[in-house]
Amino acid sequence: MKVKGTVHRYGNHVDTDVIIPARVLNNPDKKNLASHCMEDIDKEFASRVKDGDIIVAGINFGCGSSREHAPLAIKASGIGCVIAENFARIFYRNAINIGLAVLECPKAVQEICNGDILEIDLEAGIINSLSSKKTYKAESFPPFMQEIIKAGGLINYIKTTN
Amino acid sequence: MGMTMTQKIMAKKSARASVNAGELLECSLDLVFGNDITAPVAIDEFYKMGVNKVFDTNKVALIPDHFTPNKDIAAASLAKKTREFAKEFNIKHYFEVGRVGVEHALLPEIGLIKPGDMIIGADSHTCTHGALGAFATGVGSTDMAAGMATGKCWFKVPEAIKILIKGKKRKFVSGKDAILWLIGKLGVDGARYKSLEFTGDISELSLDERFTIANMAVEAGAKNGIFPVDEKTREYLAECGATGGSEYVADKDAQYCKELVMDFKEITPMIAFPHLPENTKTIEETEKLNIKIDQVIIGSCTNGRMEDMRIAAQILKGQKIASHVRCLVIPATQKIWKQCVTEGIMEVFVDAGVAVSTPTCGPCLGGHMGILAEGERCVSTTNRNFVGRMGHVKSEVYLASPAIAAASAVAGIIISPDKLSNYSFM
After folding, report:
1. CATH of the domain spanning B5-263
2. In what side-by-side order are the strands of the sheet with B135-138?
3. Model pTM?
4. Does domain B270-419 have CATH number 3.30.499.10?
């Protein structure tokens, strides 16, 4: 599967409270989550983001609360992939479980700028920057996780394996 | 090769003789739980799986504690969905308002957590339960749904960081100061994916303090925090009516990727400044900054237990909350609330000008009750001080112990209790 879009660049330790604040969690409807996604650190994100766009961030992306609403909000916003130096544990797990593509690639994070256009081959983990003409290779998933991703998330994986 | 406490529990629950860090395992679960924010999302996923029962009606708990008592119509709908699911699937451990408490205070209190248990909760502070020698970790709603259906969950066996506890606590130093000190050393991602294994002279710490420490393991990025079981643990378990369970001790040759000494000789009351729990300063450094505050919160899964209430009351006895400060105390469970009445603590709070709430997580996450306006500052005994955590994006949260929070409520600035002018502590 391929993703192509514009980069929205953030820093280190982007926590789940700023990805989706608790004040809106009383309504887990995906449209509601998408309309408030990232608003506490980037007010314009919801109006600027387009389908297939890509979030690029530093270390420990998604730290804090276990709220699955965080990857759900990002996915519902149209984001095709999140690239970070690394992810907080629960967010990473939740993203795989709900089928939001996440890639770890410190080198790409160091060089990719806000507004760059990327084309990503998710299965191969290859990130092409159409802006800088550079190519990066992300860390590959363990085979077990690839199975979950291929099944389209944990629920489908369990339905097919049990 | 030797195993850590966490690795031994994982080996047992995956029916293996031994496991190594980095291995992927499927483990059987002793408890799966969620709250009124995470469970409704899990319930939708559960229905999608097309199963018609939970794996064990005694091993699932639903605890509506976040937006309860219901803050608005939307939140009431989430609580209703949780309640109806509990009825439909005959969930034994469902707690209605009036009986509910903050989940991580309530579950141990009613004897649902045992040493050696394998526990997942759809709440990041599930790691609290490691205080009793269990493996407990936070997961998302989909993992909760899968756990409720299958009684199983996959894990990567974590590497471990060993924390060796030694020394005697100084006056006004508590478990909260110890964990803030540790997060200050490790950083908010210093234990990412790892288990924090506490060992050494743990008898210096009460069970309530161990809960506080294990609770904030996740603020260093850890998968779990875990304490060995000692006589204090056994007494606590007996009081709570928890029976069974298995005690695990780390092997002498267990592997640790890092070892750190937590020496109480070095630890003074600590404050975590906005906007990360790792931004710690000592109370001495903080006092020099003369930080004016607008609100104090004493409560939460981190510090809403009986000892927290007692220390707050000792400091607030005969005092008045500063005229421009709101002080909100939230005993974490109904049992703790009642005990506060029995011990005369409620009277102390009310006389001091404190608002006492029924159990809720509300203000900790900026959910409801105690929301901050633009520019306001709060000293809170909770666990996170991220941007906008407790309200407006331009509000500030300072994390501290109940002792510091209570003293600051009186003074209107962040100070140590021994700086209160008419205060004579013991």
Report:
1. 3.30.499.10
2. B93-94, B60-63, B31-35, B118-122, B135-138
3. 0.97
4. yes
pLDDT at B424 over 50: no
Map out the domains of chain B as residue ranges. Answer: 5-263, 270-419
For residue range B394-407, what is the model confidence (pLDDT) as tens digits? 999 999 999 999 99
Chain B residues close to A159, C-beta within 8 Å: 49-50
Q: Which amino acid is at B102?
A: V
- Tell whether the model's pLDDT for residue B426 goes beyond 50: no
- ipTM, two decimals, is 0.97
* Packing angle, helices B306-316 and B402-411, rounded to 10: 30
Equal CATH topology for B5-263 and B270-419 = yes
* Per-residue exposure over B143-174, b if at least 16 CB sit within 10 Å of its own CB, e if not: bbbbbbbbbbbbbbbbbbbbbebeeebeebbb
In the block, residue with structure tokens 């009310």? B350
Partner residue opposite A63 with nearest CB, options B49, B126, B188? B188
Q: Tell me the C-alpha distance between B426 and B409, whole Å.
A: 20
Are A4 and A118 spatial neighbours (Cβ–Cβ below 8 Å)?
yes
Tokens of B195: 């288990």
C-beta separation of A109 from A128 below 8 A: no
The share of chain B scoring above pLDDT 90, in percent, equals: 98
Q: What is the pLDDT of residue B423?
A: 54
Strands B280-282 and B270-272 turn out to be: antiparallel
Which tens digit of pLDDT belongs to each residue from A142-154? 888 888 888 888 9
Which residues on chain A are in Cβ contact (under 8 Å) with B143?
A: 93-94, 97, 154
Give A95-111 pLDDT, tens digit per residue: 999 999 999 999 999 99
